[in-house]
Design brief:
Length: 338
């Protein structure tokens, strides 16, 4: 794939100012609906394309009834692209009718912003995230949001902590006890949206060949960063999925160089934000660790799914898409990446 990332000077210049938003919406069973949301990020209401914006990927999970839309634009354009997509999603998705196996609280459940280019810092993404949260509650009356990561100033509480505080992990969250950071008390139709900013986060999900959720939860606990011997930056849930159990990992980027004692034969992918080095656990290590823990119980793994891209892939593909004027890159990526 390295050959994809040779870009023109114009594309590389734009790449220095790129931001990614991995927009999580609570719908996957109607792919047309999800594509309509994605296209709202790319085209205004008159059908005119927004310059310097691309949707790289749409990841649909039918069982979870959840999709992740990877939107990339310059720091100057990302706000309007994301807000337009959120506004469209809120008009099409009604949480009162939602069912799915993944925890969620909002029609637009999560809006994370990540810097991709050297000229963009996490603090810039935090400013945009706050503006998106404010803009959403103004444009769509009845929506509400909580902030996480660098957008949660000054505490900068992580996503897992904020979700726990909001009751996101409960099967049926009690919206009457939730107090959002922006907007009114959550309403049934729209629910509650998490909005934040951080260094890049990857979603890596490993399916184990069992229906034993208790076993899956024990693996998830052993994998977590908070557990002695767990993986740095890794937050984990075990969820029923398509007749098996999925070990669903949010893989956060950690500051500094990768730990040499945790490689599984592959160095941790690394990148920098305004000169500060970051790295993240590779999918191969996560898969190997899940396989090791499951194997101790006589259970095998079925597959690993990476939702979207690594930071390096995301920036490289965005530069490619934008340099070639490809807005709906998700339709082209398999052909281009062969």
């Amino acid at each position: 794939m390295e050959g994809l990332f040779c870009c023109s000077m114009a594309a590389c210049s734009l790449g220095n100012r790129l931001v990614a938003c991995l927009l999580n919406v609570s719908e996957a069973r109607s792919k047309d609906l999800v594509e309509t949301v994605a296209k709202a990020a790319l085209f205004n209401t008159e059908g005119v394309r927004r310059e310097g914006t691309t949707v790289l990927n749409i990841f649909n999970d039918h069982d979870y009834n959840r999709s992740v839309i990877t939107i990339v634009a310059s720091i100057d354009s990302i706000r309007e692209a994301v807000l337009a997509a959120c506004e469209k999603a809120c008009g099409l998705i009604d949480m009162r009718d939602h069912s799915g196996g993944h925890p969620c609280m909002g029609a637009v459940d999560l809006i994370p912003m990540y810097p991709l280019g050297e000229e963009v810092g996490v603090e810039h993404c935090a400013e945009e995230a706050w503006a998106v949260a404010q803009g959403l509650t103004e444009r769509v009356q009845g929506t509400s949001a909580f902030l996480f990561g660098w957008a949660d100033s000054p505490l900068q509480r992580g996503l897992a902590q904020r979700r726990k505080e909001m009751g996101w992990f409960k099967k049926k969250p009690d919206m009457q006890t939730v107090w959002p950071d922006i907007g009114p008390q959550p309403q049934g139709r729209f629910g509650l949206t998490g909005v934040g900013a951080s260094p890049y986060v990857i979603n890596c999900n490993v399916t184990i060949d069992t229906q034993d959720l208790a076993l899956g939860r024990s693996i998830a606990t052993a994998m977590r960063e908070s557990t002695t011997g767990g993986l740095p930056g890794v937050q984990v849930l075990a969820l029923p999925h398509d007749g098996a159990v999925e070990i669903a990992c949010n893989v956060e980027s950690v500051k500094g160089r990768y730990p040499s004692n945790m490689t599984a034969g592959e160095p941790w992918p690394s990148f920098s934000i305004q000169g500060q080095p970051y790295c993240h656990a590779p999918a191969s290590l996560i898969t190997a660790r899940v396989a090791e823990l499951a194997g101790r119980q006589g259970i095998g793994t079925k597959n690993t799914a990476l939702v979207g891209f690594t930071p390096h892939e995301c920036r490289g593909l965005a530069e490619l898409a934008l340099s070639q004027g490809i807005a709906e890159f998700w339709k082209e990526q398999h052909r281009i990446r062969m």
